[in-house]
Amino acid sequence: MMKVESFCQYSHLIKEFQRQYGKSDTNCFFMAKEIDEYIGKEKLSYAESDGGLYFFVEEEEYTRLYFFLEKNALPAKTFQEKICIIDLVYRNQRKPANLDELLDKWRSIGYKDYHLYQRMALRKSDLNENYKQRDLSEKISYQVGDLNLADNILELWKTGLDERSTPLPDKMELIAKIKHGEVFCITSDTGELCAAIQFLLNGATCLLQHLAVSETFKRKGLGKSLFMYAIDTAFEKGAKVCNLWVDVENTPAINLYRKCGYKEDGMVSKQFIYKR
Q1: Are strands 83-91 and 62-70 parallel, antiparallel or unpaired?
Q2: Among positive and negative, which fits the CA dihedral 115, 4, 51, 77?
Q3: For 72-101, what is each residue's pLDDT tens digit?
Q4: CA 29, CA 217: separation in Å to the nearest integer?
Q5: 166: how many CB neighbours lie within 10 A of its CB?
Q6: Integer Cα distance of 215 and 192 in angstroms
Q7: What pLDDT does 101 receive?
Q8: Disulfide-capable partner of 271 in 54, 114, 169, 180 (CB 3.0 to 4.6 Å)?
Q9: Residue 178: phi, psi to the nearest 5?
């Protein structure tokens, strides 16, 4: 693997691949800003094979793989030692005609089915006002994330979530998100972290991620309460729709979101994992 040194190099690699091979299958749809961030942190590498171009985003414990693959080519086996995750995102009604064939290609070199996520969306007009009611016995306070709680928030997310499926920020990234008002928390009357959620507002769309509740405070309604607080804040700040991703096998969470007013919007995220 070789490091990607600039956005121009990244673009050139893709253009040259497409010039040589024409139409290809891909799961690579980065924004320029994302590429610049990965390059700045020296997280982005690439490799090539006959009919394949691969980009690797290095996380602490695993690697995310993005590819361009010529229609008739087989993917090359992984180029590195870490656990590797592939994420294919598509709309159910417009899924690629050769999707099953593409998935079988990755299975043939050792990748295993991992998680299947669906995206759900909530518009303000669909919000179930009755479901918003909070009945909490705990003395709690809502707040935009406290910088002093950064380590606690990261630890809560790492122990309560699967970071391979949902990449978590590192500490510096989390601090920046807290400063930008993108992390909400619940703390107890003693200042202990109870729950945290990440809140990303982009124009009229809000994405809610990384909702987790401390083991000590589970089954007290805090997760639902923080979730509703984040939704209310999103709509107050001008969001027209609140999105989230949920594992299709997480029936309790899906039921909670539906009661709130969420509906499946047809977007799917199919994940594969490779372990040596």
Answers
A1: parallel
A2: negative
A3: 999 988 776 789 999 999 987 778 788 899
A4: 39
A5: 16
A6: 12
A7: 92
A8: 114
A9: -65, -45
Token duo for residue 272: 């594969």
Half-sphere exposure at residue 132, Cβ-oriented, CA atoms within 13 angstroms: 12
Q: How far is CA 237 from CA 51, 197, 205, 206, in A?
A: 46, 17, 10, 10
Return the structure tokens found at 189. 């009357």
Q: Whose structure tokens read 């050792």? A: 110
pLDDT of 119-164, one tens digit each?
999 998 998 877 766 555 556 677 777 899 999 999 999 998 888 8
**Cβ contacts of residue 203 below 8 Å, gap of 6+?**
none
Q: Distance between CA atoms of 15 and 24, rounded to whole angstroms?
A: 12
Digit-coded pLDDT (tens) for 218-259: 888 888 889 988 998 999 999 999 999 999 999 988 998 998
Q: Are 108 and 267 in contact (CB under 8 A)?
A: no
pLDDT over 90 percentage in the chain: 59
